[in-house]
Design goal:
There is one protein chain. The chain is built from nine helices and eleven strands. With 380 residues, it is an alpha+beta fold. The chain has a domain of 115 residues: GMP Synthetase, Chain A, domain 3. The strands form three sheets. The protein has a four-stranded mixed beta sheet, with helices on one face. The chain is flat. The two termini are 39 Å apart.
Amino acid sequence: MSTVLNPAEAPAAVTYTFTSESVSEGHPDKVCDFIADSILDAHLEQDAGSRVACEVLCKEDTVVLAGEITSNATVDFEDVVRRAIREIGYTDADQPFRADDVKILSFLSAQAAEIDQGVTATTSLVGEQGAGDQGIMFGYATDETPELMPLPILLAHRLARVLARHRKEGTVDWLRPDAKTQVSVQYEGNTPVAVADVLISTQHASAVEREVIRHFLATTVIPEGLEGWYHDGLRILVNPTGSFVQGGPSADAGVTGRKIIVDTYGGAGRHGGGAFSGKDPSKVDRSGAYYCRYVARQVVKAGLAKKAEVQVAYAIGVAQPVSVKVDTFGTGDDRKAADFVRGFDFRPAAIIEQLDLLRPFYRQTTNYGHFGKAELPWEA
């Protein structure tokens, strides 16, 4: 039996299995994240200085919006919500949660003035844009994949993407939007050597037989998603409860910010606890985590370590971070890595400028991970 460890901390000689999961864009929590990021983008399209902290709850035929937004933009929340739900694919007339008929309740207010005065450069006590909150953020990178991402979460995301693509292209007519994927990878020390197990739970039409679902996933979705990691000895689990007809917000409640491990490194790296979606980049929960990922990538790309994790800590209203730390987990020179990391500017305004974060592109980040996508600026 293998020992279960975190790959970031595994000694070089240990053999173990590590598992990560992903979820589809139709998962109830991801529906909420996508609505929140759609509302954020709608504000940034009109006003790059918008301050947005939007939370969403979805259940049955109701969408609840809550949080704080201060902006010069005029946004039709109902239109944004319905378009987001329709894009995900919840349009079936026989389901309570569908784009055309959901009730939308709004409990949005303006950002607190005390936060605004600390974040805005002209009113901040430090004379420049301060952090939008206190907290700690982490970024992680590993050379085990070309994307510098841990292999288990990367493959889990690929499977969820492939499943969604086949649903939207109509390859089969029984797939529905809600789904989860899970991938277990065997490691020898820091090196992934094989995929051991794949689990996919996907929502489906009631008329389709379980064996039809399993055959399509085992012969089409899984080989495409795993690419070169697919092999005949793979153990495959499909809809292990027997059926998955009731899904999405029609069956389960969804809330923003509940998939923070799916959004990051699948458990392979630490997480500071702050969610991303629905927050403009003045919130360092989002921008700080993005920048930590950017810097961790540079450490690995510079050859200073095979794995790197960067932590930053902020005080609300203060521009300079309280602390910055890098850990190479014994795969590099921590002192050289720390000297290298000190050359990066972690002030919120500098992060926003360097990564060009005041633009409406956050809907691209919502699903299938905020990291490992070449089109995102912190992955450059």
